[in-house]
Amino acid sequence: MLHPALQRMVAEATHAKHVQPDEVIQSLWSGYGEIIRLQLRGSEVASVILKHVKPPSVIHHPRGWHSDASHTRKLKSYAIEMHWYEHWVKYCDNNCRVPKSYLSTTHDDEYIILLEDLDAAGFSIRKEQVGMESIHQCLHWLAYFHATFLGKLPKGLWEHGSYWHLDTRTDELASMQDKDLQQAASNIDLALKKARYQTIIHGDAKLANFCFSDDGQSVSAVDFQYVGGGCGMKDVAYFLGSCLDDEQCETHIEELLNVYFKYLRQAIQKCTKEVDIHALEDEWRDLFPVAWVDFYRFLDGWMPNHWKINNYTRRLAGNLLKTSACTS
Questions:
Q1: What is the 3-state secondary structure (H, E, C) of 169-236?
Q2: Which of 50, 172, 200, 266 has the most beta carbons within 10 angstroms of its beta carbon?
Q3: Helix, strand, coil percent values for the chain (each to nearest 5)
Q4: CATH code matching the domain that covers 125-328, chosen among 3.40.50.200, 3.30.70.1400, 3.90.1200.10, 3.30.450.40
């Protein structure tokens, strides 16, 4: 059952005469709430998605990670996601499509985000494995997203986007097994922070957060809890790592980086940004392995047996740790 006060909020935001819970799509991480599909009557839309965040009194992290810092980080992430939908989402067009927002508010200690139902909007396909065409579509989305926000200050968002950002992951840093990487972590982080070309990054651009269109032509993205400032390579490295295995990384990464930068050049021209695209591309290509190893730094402390820690990842880390930029 939906609380009557929450039902009234949804009805007012959507001009619906009746609001009916349909299905729980998923539970939020560590039991912090649910994502629910609601059916509407008397509204212009037949259904909406409710992201209802209600922090639990007792927290059970799936992998045993919990602290006051992690609790504070999660709450801040939901507040930032609300701010994203209130103030930033309007800048995204169909090239970097995101769900429409109907409501972002708090009620007591709860966070309420009411969004367009992407299934009903024609983006009903979710994929656990993808071919090259689907990867290209996601890279197209990322390129246009990064071009749209190139040079923008992340006001109200994370100063440094991504859920694995070093400043917010001190517990995981202390637990790292790779001591050479642990020692280099600050310099790796600094190399990304000092990049001349900064944008807004999605911050959790894994395959599971892309919704594919029914006609197979495009994607939309969801889950903006860790949206914020940063180098676009953080999104690209994290996304490619979410859908390529070790052999595919060795075989296809360069080709896929070329695809991303092709789309980025198109997107920057479309956005009429005054930027030296060649200098941007040179800098970001150099930072791709840095971004990849930055995420590896998080995994090594959080889950050192994770499948993403493969030979490709270890090779990039080994090469990077030999450079003065990350060992000085």
A1: CHHHHHCCCCHHHHHHHHHHHHHHHCCCCCEEECCCCCHHHEEECCCCCCEEECCCCCCEEECCHHHH
A2: 200
A3: 50, 15, 35
A4: 3.90.1200.10
pTM above 0.70, yes or no: yes
* From-to residues of CATH 3.30.200.20 in the chain: 1-116
Distance of CA 302 to the CA centre of its chain: 18
CB 211 within 8 A of CB 125: yes
| Nearest to 55, CA basis, from 80, 28, 82 | 28
Tens digit of each residue's pLDDT, the chain (328 residues): 688 889 999 999 999 999 999 999 988 877 788 999 999 999 999 999 999 998 876 555 545 545 677 788 989 999 999 999 999 999 999 999 999 999 999 888 899 999 999 999 999 999 999 999 999 999 999 999 999 999 999 999 999 999 999 999 999 999 999 999 999 999 999 999 999 999 999 999 999 999 999 999 999 999 999 999 999 999 999 999 999 999 999 999 999 999 999 999 999 999 988 899 999 999 999 999 999 999 999 999 999 999 999 999 999 999 999 985 565 5
Pick the CATH number of 1-116 from 3.30.200.20, 3.30.1330.40, 2.170.150.20, 3.40.50.10090: 3.30.200.20
